[in-house]
Amino acid sequence: MGLFDIFKRKPPIRDSAALAEFIDANAAFVAQKGIYEYARARAGHYAKVLFSEKGFHEVAEQARWRAYPIGLAMVAEVVDNVLHRVRDVERLRGLQKLREIVLDVFDRYPPPAALDAQAWRDLRGELVLRLDQLSLHPPKRAIDIPQTFIQSYFDAMPIHEKLKQTDFHTTHNYLKVVLCNVHEELENRIDLPALEREQTAAAAT
Length: 205
Hints:
The protein has 205 residues and is mostly helical. It contains nine helices and no strands.
C-alpha cells in the first residue's frame, strides 16, 4: 500500500460479491478489535504481559471466532436497514438474498483451530436463527441493533467474569458507535440501483 492509499475513497458496492466483502471485513473488525481493545484496556499497564502469554492468545482466539458470527449477524442488520428501510415490498426477497450472502461468507471458513467442529456448526446454527428472525421485525436503526447481541458478545470476552462485571455498558456503547460507523460507510458506498439490477437479473434466471 502506498503512502497516500489511506486517503483513497473506497470503491462503491455495486454487486453481491462486494457486499459480501464488506460484511466479512466489518464482522471481523467488530469481533477482533472489540476483544483486543477491551482486553488491552482492562489489563492497563499489564497489557504487554497479558498479550505475551500463550494462554491469553488461546482464549482470545476462541473469543474472536465465537464473536465473528455475532458480528456477521449485527452487520447483516445494518445492511437490512440500508437496503430495505424504504423498500418494504421487496424486503422479504431481499432478506433471503442477504441470508444467502451472509451464510456464504461464514462458510468460507473451515472450523478454526481454536474451536472444535461441533462448536463451529452450533455457531452457524445460531447465525441461521438470527438471520431468519430478521423478517419478524422492521429494519432497526444501527444504534438499536446491539441490544439483541450485547450479552452474547460480552460473554465472549476473554476476561474473568469478576473483572469485567462493571464493563457491560461500556461494551454496549462501543458496539453502538461501531455499528453507526458501519452504517455510515455502507450508505456512502452502496450503489442501490446497481445492486438491485444484479439481484433482479439473478432472480430472473
